[in-house]
Design goal:
Largest sheet: 6 strands, parallel
Strand content: 15-25%
Number of helices: 12
Number of domains: 2
Order of helices and strands: EHEEEHHHEHEEHEEHEHEHEHHH
CATH superfamily of the largest domain: Glycogen Phosphorylase B
CATH class of the largest domain: Alpha Beta
Helix content: 40-55%
CATH topology of the largest domain: Rossmann fold
Structural class: alpha/beta
Shape: globular
Number of strands: 12
Radius of gyration: 21 Å
Strand order of the largest sheet: 2-1-3-4-5-6
């Protein structure tokens, strides 16, 4: 099989990881890959086109509209359609741009939905979201989970060691990541006994909250830089309002870090019995979970063990094999 992969010049970082990890695994499965420029793709001498980031940046080149090749596209999430404007966009200017982008995407989807042979979602929840929001026939949508870089995110390795224990939250700055509610819950913990709270929040431009024990880190980090933070943390807090996958949850579990996350969207699919699940819109539930985690070392040890086992279910090799099944089904 010769697979043409639409390659963006400046993809979203998470999309870049997804694309490159699978390209590496595809080669081990005997799939020959060819990068296709998104501004003018050369579609000669390939069997199948894969668009790994539908709606992530902009729509595929119109050349796909009339090509005879089968096309498969991955949709990583439709939070911009599922959530309210206030929950999705950090400020009114971004909201205006985002709404215009969504309108363009919806218009382009009219032709692309007829062309695409199969749509890959990244979770069961993501598949149902696509079927619901874009009225895609159910037999045209399948889901394939991401993997985790277990060579990077593992229990053994360097840890960030501070003077006090710390809780950790990692997220791109956006309202749906629910940082405000985490802070509201954290401040209710007794100040004299609570651990610190480290929030790694790239692109955040606001002032530091005036809450003792809270530290905001605004710099983005590589996977290799993040892993020691997970390993050193007492617990990882990720009560996101909307996630079609939620890679940080798996990264934390793979590093042996207990997880608090949401009982909604795709997150329960990933965690199974390994995490404390909360209503992400309930400060009280987030606080109760934090209290349990901070005050019960036996619970933390149990969660580490179960989380490590759960994370091992997700590998990029397994993900690549599942993608291959989709590609083969389209070609046959």
């Amino acid at each position: 099989m010769k697979l043409g992969i639409l390659t963006r010049d400046e993809p979203v970082y998470s999309l870049l990881i997804y694309r490159e990890k699978l390209k590496y695994e595809f080669s081990a499965l005997g799939i020959e890959t060819v990068d296709l420029a998104d501004d003018d793709p050369n579609l000669d001498n390939i069997d199948l086109v894969w668009e790994p980031g539908l709606f992530s940046v902009r729509f595929p080149h119109p050349k796909f509209q009339h090509c005879s090749l089968p096309v498969v596209g991955t949709i990583h999430g439709l939070a911009g359609l599922s959530l309210s404007i206030r929950e999705y966009f950090p400020d009114p200017f971004e909201a205006e741009i985002g709404q215009a982008f969504q309108q363009e995407v919806t218009a382009d989807w009219e032709w692309f939905s007829r062309k695409v042979a199969k749509v890959i979602a990244v979770s069961k929840y993501g598949a149902e979201e696509i079927i619901s929001q874009y009225k895609v026939p159910r037999n045209k949508v399948t889901f394939v989970y991401h993997g985790v870089a277990h060579d990077i995110f593992k229990e053994d390795g360097p840890k960030i060691a501070g003077e006090k224990p710390y809780l950790l939250q990692i997220a791109q700055f956006a309202p749906k990541k629910n940082v405000d509610r985490v802070l509201e819950a954290y401040i209710q913990l007794p100040e004299e006994t609570r651990p610190e709270l480290v929030v790694i929040l790239p692109n955040y431009e606001g002032a530091d909250p005036e809450i003792p024990g809270v530290r905001i880190i605004r710099e983005g980090m590589t996977q290799e830089e993040l892993a020691p933070w997970y390993r050193g943390a007492m617990g990882f807090i990720f009560p996101s309002i909307h996630e079609t996958f939620g890679m940080p949850v798996l990264e934390a579990m793979a590093c042996g870090c207990p997880v608090i996350t949401s009982n909604t969207t795709a997150l329960p699919e990933l965690t199974g019995e390994a995490a404390l699940l909360v209503n992400p819109r309930s400060v009280e539930e987030i606080f109760d979970a934090l209290s349990q985690l901070v005050n019960d070392p036996t619970l933390r040890r149990k969660m580490r063990k179960v989380g490590l086992g759960q994370s091992r279910l997700f590998t990029w090799e397994k993900s690549a094999r599942e993608h291959l099944k989709v590609f083969e089904s389209v070609l046959t």
